[in-house]
Design a protein that fits this description.
Blueprint lengths: L1 H5 L3 H6 L2 H18 L1 H24 L2 H47 L1 H7 L2 H50 L8 H12 L1 H29 L13 H10 L9 E9 L9 E8 L15 H8 L4 E9 L2 E2 L5 H7 L14 H5 L8 H10 L1
Antiparallel strand pairs: 1-2, 1-3, 3-4
Helix pairs in contact: 3-5, 3-9, 4-5, 4-8, 4-9, 5-7, 5-9, 7-8, 7-9
Amino acid sequence: MLSGVLRSPVSFFEATPRGRILNRFTTDMDFVDARVFLPGKQAVQNTLLTLAKVAVIATQSPVVIAVTTVLLVLGGFAMSLAVKVSHKARFGDSLATSRVFQIVTETVDALSSLRAYGVLERFQRHYCRLTDETMRAFGLFTTCYRLTRAIASSAAFLVVLSTLLANTAFAGDGGPNPSSLGLALSAACSVPLGLMTLGIMLFSVLQMVVAFERCLEYTELSPEKDVGETWTEEKKAAVAESLAKWPTEGKVEFHSYSASYKPGILPNVLNNVTFTAEAREKIGVVGRTGAGKSSMVLALLRMLEASEGRILIDGVDIREVPLPKLRRSITVIPQCVLNHLRTKNIIITPKKLNRIVLPRVGCRYVG
């Protein structure tokens, strides 16, 4: 699942809230990895024990087999309805929990801005509303859980009642055999607890299937398109050998490069970009917010779809380089927003450097 998410295109992360991804890797993975084994084991154990007890009852009262069969059919139908409703409630609970995770992460990231604009109370009300939706879905889930337990206990008590009536009604002239009646009732009295436990365990296991389906969905995500998907093994080996020491210098060339986050849907964020950065040359990119500075870095990593043009690194078109090799060969230092107590000129320049020198140096690097 982690591999599927990491190999997904940028459009997946733009369309998927972070809270939903976080919910998959926390709540759903916890159900699959830690909680499904014990209920599954107990469900199998209780199934075998209950069948053995019903078999003991049937040796003394064969009529109980027919009663048990009818109860299993009716109870199975009622439980299937309860499980379907609980599945919907579980999906609703998961979606609501994802929204709660999303608003928490977004609020923490933008906490300073929210305080500055005085909108914390509005976000608190929104959080409380999402929490109420989560509680409503969880309440419906709990109701289905209790209904399943009530169905199992009712069926079990009907088994006990049918055992008692069968042994007394078909006893004959001499009355019921005390030993047979005692054995049948002893086995029947332990059926209610077994059936209630079995119903609870089956309900829990079936609910965890929902978490498994949600995790399985992320293992089948469409990965990014890579150039080596259609290559033969011989060509992959040849390309890997030719690119073993690439890149050696680090010369970067943009040739009439244009790119978009969603070609054909969104406009280009880079339009006809052409420049050459020589090996070991330091350059600076200047532009307003949204001008495409970060998009140029994403283009180097092929996280953007090129509309036209190409990018060369040491004379090699990056479209011909497999993605794992390309991204292992390029190092990117993420940009961080920092608040300095002193002026930027004093911090990032030597002490004796004039304040006017810094913009001149920047313009010289940009060209």
